[in-house]
Amino acid sequence: MNDWVKARVVGKHQWAAGLYSLQFDAPIADYQAGQYIKVALDIEGERIGRPYSLVNAPQSRPLEIYFNEIAGGPLTPPLSALKPGDEVWLTAHAGGIFTLETVQPAETLWLLATGTGLGVYLSILRTDAPWDLFKRVVLIHGVRVATDFTYAETLAEIGRRHADRFTFIPVVSREDCAGTLHGRITDLLTSGQLESRADATIDPATSHVMLCGNSAMIKDAKVILEARGLVRHRRHAPGHYTTEQYH
Fold it and tell me: Would you say the pTM of this structure is higher than 0.90?
């Protein structure tokens, strides 16, 4: 049974149509960057909740989630209608193993995200762990249209802080946009365009890859990575790529 605590909405941002961030004040336990909480509302006598990765670094507050509103869904339409001062339920303890806790040091950390899968990486990148474990970090964010790019100021600040150790590669699948790669992340991985843009190569000897976002992207990327000899990372059996399980 979930251990729920009451949270108060203290901030809200609409990035684009159906694309939101919410910030909460709530007494949850300490957690690791990359973990998620469940967010719930009581709707018609039933508590409806789902997991969301935390965007903020563990040491910072308020708590923040990043999500798409799903038309006709049971939770996200009322969630996106919340205003500062409204109350929600959060799980008191974060969960998940999409963290760097047991990942082995390597040359390059590759972070592949589609859509709101970006959020979890913002939490990780605002901690010391990726910069202690890796010489370089390459973040790839794929969206359908350019208006779905978000958190530009946060990404710019990470870039300023880590200079030539951080590379951000934006990818747009449904339109051509200056300064971005065009296509699906997995197709660009297969063609070599991602690695060419990053001036680095994904291979078992030098890389760890994290995958978060669309389930089809994750499924296809796993096939591509395993064909190159990368092995899935497990807590008790270190490997070369990690996937977020709840997406």
Answer: yes
